[in-house]
Design brief:
This protein is of the alpha/beta class. Helix content is about 40%, strand content about 20%. About 35% of the residues are buried. This is DNA polymerase III, epsilon subunit.
Length: about 180
């Protein structure tokens, strides 16, 4: 199993920055078998440049759940799955940071579609999500929103699965989460 994830945030991974949106598509290697999406109230103002980039405003998230409210959903849907994201270090470390603040240890095997695309599709002019989607004719709507970017990453990942004769993509999930 794989979980293709994208998050939107109030800033970089370091410091007190928080999540504002999360989208997760659980994939069995053939198709999506489950999904989760939510806007999140970060409990802090969203910087104007982030609002301009994502379209997510303080008003949009004021009555949305906090990460604490959806943490169990995130742990459950990603259980026994490889955590896949475009620039996986950002998305994974953000979720792990949020879970650590709640007293949870979060471990998942990770797979970065940026690094993998460089191996499977060498010679492209750029490996940003937008440019990869353009080069590979993958539809990308709602750019810089978790659900739109995660959906495009699912399509990218499916193309990678079809173009992986050398077995770069691991076929087994791993690890768990523990709170306490």
């Amino acid at each position: 199993m794989y979980c293709i994830v994208d998050v939107e945030t109030t800033g970089g991974v370091k410091g007190p920055t928080r999540l504002t949106e999360i989208a997760i598509f659980r994939h069995d290697g053939h198709q999506i078998v489950d999904s989760f999406h939510s806007l999140l109230n970060p409990g802090q103002p969203i910087p104007p440049f982030i609002s301009r980039l994502t379209g997510i405003t303080d008003e949009m998230v004021q009555y949305e759940p906090t990460f604490e409210d959806i943490a169990n959903d995130v742990m459950t849907i990603t259980q026994d799955a490889i955590f896949v994201a475009h620039n996986v270090g950002f998305d994974f470390n953000f979720i792990r940071k949020e879970l650590n603040w709640l007293g949870c240890d979060y471990f998942r095997r990770t797979l970065c579609t940026v690094r993998l695309s460089r191996k499977l599709f060498p010679g492209l002019p750029s490996y940003s999500l937008g440019n990869l989607c353009q080069s590979l004719n993958i539809p990308l709507t709602d750019r810089h929103r978790a659900q739109g970017d995660a959906a495009a990453t699912v399509r990218l990942f499916e193309k990678m699965l079809l173009n992986d004769p050398s077995g770069h993509i691991p076929r087994v999930g791993l690890l768990s989460a523990h709170c306490g």
